[in-house]
Design a protein that fits this description.
The complex is a heterodimer.
Chain A lengths: L1 E3 L4 H11 L6 E2 L12 E3 L4 H14 L3 H8 L7 H15 L10 H23 L3 E2 L5 E5 L10 H7 L5 E5 L4 E5 L4 E5 L11 H15 L7 H7 L20
Parallel strand pairs in A: 1-2, 1-3, 5-6
Antiparallel strand pairs in A: 4-5, 6-7, 7-8
Chain B lengths: L1 H16 L5 H9 L31 E2 L5 E2 L1 E5 L26 H13 L5 E5 L6 H17 L6 E5 L6 H10 L2 E3 L7 H7 L5 H23 L12 E7 L6 H15 L3 E6 L16 H16 L4 H4 L12 H8 L6 E2 L5 H5 L6 H10 L7 H6 L11 E2 L10 H12 L15 H10 L1 H9 L3
Parallel strand pairs in B: 3-4, 4-5, 5-6, 6-7, 7-8, 9-10
Antiparallel strand pairs in B: 1-2
Helix pairs in contact in B: 3-4, 4-5, 5-7, 8-9, 15-17, 16-17
The chains are: A alpha/beta, B alpha/beta.
C-alpha cells in the first residue's frame, strides 16, 4: 500500500500508525514513482493520534523523537521510508535501537541523521553574512537538508546584537532573528541594500584567501572533499558573483 | 537632504579609513604567516559576555584553500620586520623582502569585521621579533587585550609566544588568549644552534613550562573557587619543522611524547620543510608530504590508541613509508593476530590496522545485540581492506593465508590499488590470491628486507 500524508511531523506519525502492520508499506514523498497495482491511501492528519504515538515512542526511547525530527529534515527523497523503518525498529524492540548498526534500517536512519547533523556543523562555518545598509546581516545559502532554522541558535549566541536572516534560497524560506525573536518565513527573493564597506571587506577576504594558500602544495581533491563545489555558489572566496549586488 | 546624506557617508568613511588594513599589507603579513601549520579553533568554551563571539569546543572550519588546508582562524603577523636570522625563515633579517607592521587597530577591526561575516572563527596572531622580544610581546599582548576589553570580542584567539620575552608578559597574554604556542622549530639543540642561532631549547621550553605550571595552578584554584576568569582554556601547542635538519622520526616522536606527558601539550604539529629560502646549510628539496603524514599517524597512535613511542619506532629510525605505523607494528606482531571481533576488548580492537577509534566503538556497541559477521561489518561501512587480515568474525577468517601475502596486499592497499574486493560469501578465489602474490612479490620482498 502507498501512503500519502501531509509532510509534517503529525502527518507522518498519523501515517506511521496506519502503516505499522503493513509489511510492504510505501511512504510517498514528492516525485514518488507510483507502483502500478499498489493500493493508495490518502491520510488526514490526526494530531491526537500523533500525540499518542509520540508518547508511546518516547516511553521506549526518550531521544528517538529528536532523531525523527532530524530525519524529516533530510533532503533525501526516501526520508519518510527511512524514518518509518527506524521508528518501526524502535517500536518492535520497545527500547532504543540507535546502536544496533548491524540492522539495515537503523544504520540507514543513523546515516541520514548524521548527514543532517554534519551539514549543520558545516554551515556553522560556510555561512557568509553580508552587511546590509541597516547593519543587519544577510546570508543566502542552499543546503541539502532543511536546516536554516537549526542554525539560528549558534549565530544568535555569538552575534546577539545583530539581526540576521538565513535565507534558504532553494526552499524559498528564511530563518530570521530580529534582535529578539526568531521566526521562519517564506522568502523567494530578498531585496538587500549592502552597506558602504561591504564590498571592500569582501575584497579583503578574497585577498586573504589567495594569500594564505601555499601554491606549491596544491591538493584540490582534498579541498573539494572538505568543501564540496555545490556550496561554492555563496562563498565570496570561491565565486566572483557571490558578492551578489542584490 | 541630499547634502546631509553625503555628509553622513563622508564621516563614516573617515571613521573606517583610519583602521581598515590595506590589501598590500594584508597580503604581506598573511604570506609571512601562512607556513605556520596550526589553525585549530577547538578546546575553548568561552561564553559571549555581551559583545561579539564565543568559543566552539569542537572547532569549526570556515573555508578550505586549494592546498587542502582549512581556514579556521585569521592567521596573520603583526609585523614581519625581524631582528633574528633563522636560516629557514622567509622573514629573517638578512632576507630582502618588504617590511610592514600593522597597527593594533588594523588587526582588531579586521578580526571583528571578518568574524561578523562568519569568515573566521577567531584570530591567530603571531609576529616576527620586531626591535626586541619584550617590545614584540608587549605589542601582541596589547592587541589581544584591546580585542577582549575594548572591542568586547569573545571569539577564539591563538597567540604565538615570543621566546626570551619577560615572563610577566607571557602571564598577561595567557589571561586573554585561548591558546598559546611556542614553536619548538627544530627537534634538537644542535639543529637550533645551526639554523636558528638566536633561539635555544631553553628559551623555548622555559615559557612553555611556566605556562604549564601556571595553568595547572589556575585550574586547581578555580576548582576551589579562589579565582575567576580564564587562563589559556585551550592550552598550548607547538610545532616542529621536519626535514630541514637530520633528526630521525624516532627522535622527533620521543620529543613529542615527552611534550604530551610533561607539558600537557594539546597538539604537536609537524611541518614538512618547504625550501622557500636557499642556504648552504639547508637541504635543497623539501621533506615529502608522506613523511609528515606518517608522523601525524604516529602522533595519533600516541594520543588516541594507547601506543607508546617505544612500540612504534626505534630512536634512530624513520617510520616506514610503505605502511602506516599501526600496520608496521601489527606486521611485527603477527603472533597477536587475528583477534575475534566479537570478543576483543577496546585496546585490542584499536590495534587492528584499518579500524579507527570510531569504528572500534561502533563494533563494541553493535555486538551487544548480535554476533557480528563480516557481512554485518560491511553493512556498518567498516572498511576491511586492511582489517580483514587481522580479524576473525564469528570464527571466520577472510584474510590472506600467510604473512608474506599480507604484506603484499597491504602495500597494494596503501598504494590505492584495490587489490581484491572482499567476497563476503566465501574466501578469496584461489587464482586471484596467487595473482596478487605474484604481482606484488617484489614489493613484498622489499618490505621484508626493508626497515621492518
Amino acid at each position: 500500500m502507498i501512503y500519502f500524508f501531509e509532510e509534517t511531523e503529525d502527518g507522518f506519525l498519523t501515517a506511521f500508525l496506519a502503516a505499522f502492520q503493513d509489511e510492504r508499506a510505501l511512504f510517498a514523498a514528492e516525485n514518488t514513482q507510483l507502483v502500478l497495482g499498489e493500493e493508495r491511501v490518502y491520510l488526514q492528519t490526526d494530531s491526537l493520534k500523533a500525540e499518542k504515538a509520540r508518547l508511546r515512542l518516547q516511553s521506549f526511547d526518550r531521544e528517538c523523537l529528536s532523531d525523527l525530527r532530524l530525519l524529516l529534515r533530510c533532503g533525501k527523497t526516501d526520508r519518510f521510508q527511512v524514518a518509518f523503518g527506524y521508528l518501526k525498529a524502535v517500536a518492535n524492540a520497545k527500547a532504543p535501537v540507535r546502536a544496533r548498526l548491524a540492522d539495515r534500517a537503523v544504520f540507514i536512519a543513523m546515516e541520514y541523521v548524521k548527514k543532517v547533523r554534519y551539514e549543520i556543523h558545516r554551515f556553522h562555518g560556510f555561512i557568509r553574512f553580508m552587511e546590509t545598509a541597516s547593519g543587519a546581516l544577510y546570508a543566502p545559502f542552499s543546503p541539502d537538508n532543511d536546516i536554516c532554522d537549526l542554525l539560528v541558535p549558534h549565530f544568535r549566541a555569538r552575534l546577539p546584537a545583530y539581526p540576521f536572516v538565513l535565507h534558504d534560497v532553494s526552499r524559498k524560506k528564511a530563518a530570521v532573528y530580529d534582535g529578539e525573536h526568531v521566526f521562519v518565513a517564506p522568502l523567494t527573493q530578498a531585496e538587500v541594500v549592502l552597506s558602504a564597506k561591504e564590498n571592500e571587506w569582501q575584497g579583503l577576504w578574497k585577498q586573504y584567501y589567495a594569500a594564505v594558500n601555499i601554491p606549491s602544495r596544491e591538493r584540490l581533491k582534498q579541498m573539494r572533499g572538505y568543501m564540496p563545489a555545490r556550496y561554492w555558489k555563496f562563498l565570496p572566496e570561491k565565486n566572483e558573483n557571490a558578492s551578489a549586488n542584490r | 537632504m541630499k547634502n546631509n546624506e553625503q555628509m553622513f557617508d563622508f564621516w563614516k568613511l573617515l571613521e573606517y579609513n583610519d583602521s581598515m588594513i590595506s590589501q598590500e599589507k594584508l597580503t604581506i603579513l598573511t604570506e609571512s604567516a601562512k607556513y605556520d601549520v596550526s589553525c585549530s579553533s577547538s578546546g575553548s568554551a568561552r561564553k559571549n559576555a555581551g559583545g561579539i563571539g564565543n568559543g566552539y569546543v569542537a572547532g569549526c572550519c570556515h573555508s578550505f584553500t586549494p592546498d587542502g588546508r582549512c581556514i579556521s582562524l585569521l592567521k596573520i603577523l603583526l609585523s614581519n620586520d625581524c631582528i633574528y636570522d633563522c636560516k629557514y625563515c622567509p622573514n629573517r633579517v638578512s632576507a630582502d623582502v618588504p617590511r610592514v607592521s600593522a597597527t593594533p587597530e588594523e588587526i582588531c577591526e579586521l578580526t571583528m569585521d571578518f568574524y561578523k561575516r562568519n569568515y573566521i572563527e577567531g584570530l591567530f596572531l603571531s609576529s616576527a621579533v620586531h626591535k626586541n622580544p619584550d617590545y614584540t610581546m608587549e605589542r601582541l599582548v596589547l592587541v589581544v587585550k584591546k580585542l577582549r576589553t575594548e572591542y568586547n570580542f569573545h571569539g577564539y584567539i591563538h597567540l604565538k609566544g615570543i621566546p626570551r620575552a619577560d615572563e610577566r608578559l607571557c602571564r598577561e597574554a595567557a589571561k586573554y588568549a585561548d591558546r598559546m604556542s611556542y614553536n619548538m622549530e627544530l627537534p634538537s639543540e644542535q639543529s637550533l644552534k645551526l639554523l636558528a642561532p638566536q633561539k635555544s631549547k631553553q628559551s623555548l621550553l622555559l615559557p612553555m613550562r611556566q605556562l604549564t605550571q601556571e595553568k595547572r595552578q589556575f585550574v586547581q584554584d578555580k576548582k576551589k573557587g579562589l579565582i575567576q576568569g580564564h587562563f589559556l582554556p585551550a592550552g598550548q601547542t607547538t610545532q616542529m619543522i621536519v626535514g630541514a635538519s637530520p633528526e630521525a622520526d624516532g627522535q622527533i616522536l620521543r620529543l613529542t611524547q615527552a611534550l604530551y606527558r610533561n607539558m600537557d601539550m594539546k597538539r604537536v604539529y609537524y611541518s614538512s620543510y618547504i625550501p622557500v629560502v636557499h642556504d648552504a646549510l639547508l637541504p635543497e628539496v623539501g621533506a615529502g608530504q608522506l613523511r609528515e603524514h606518517r608522523l601525524y599517524q604516529a602522533d595519533w597512535l600516541l594520543r588516541f590508541y594507547g601506543f607508546t613511542v617505544e612500540e612504534i619506532v626505534d630512536e634512530e629510525q624513520n617510520l616506514s613509508l610503505e605502511f602506516d605505523p599501526k600496520c608496521a607494528w601489527a606486521l611485527r606482531h603477527m603472533h597477536l593476530f587475528p583477534v575475534e571481533i566479537n570478543r576483543a576488548d577496546l585496546a585490542q580492537l584499536l590495534r587492528v590496522p584499518g579500524i579507527g577509534v570510531r569504528n572500534a566503538h561502533k563494533i563494541l556497541q553493535a555486538r551487544r545485540y548480535t554476533r557480528l559477521t563480516f557481512e554485518d561489518l560491511l553493512k556498518m561501512k567498516i572498511a576491511l581492506k586492511r582489517a580483514k587480515h587481522f580479524i576473525t568474525c564469528d570464527g571466520k577468517y577472510l584474510g590472506a593465508k600467510n604473512d608474506t601475502t599480507v604484506r603484499g596486499l597491504l602495500i597494494a592497499a596503501e598504494n590505492g590499488e584495490n587489490a581484491v574486493q572482499l567476497d563476503v560469501f566465501g574466501a578469496l578465489p584461489k587464482t586471484n590470491e596467487q595473482k596478487i602474490m605474484l604481482s606484488t612479490r617484489q614489493n613484498a620482498l622489499m618490505a621484508l628486507t626493508g626497515e621492518l
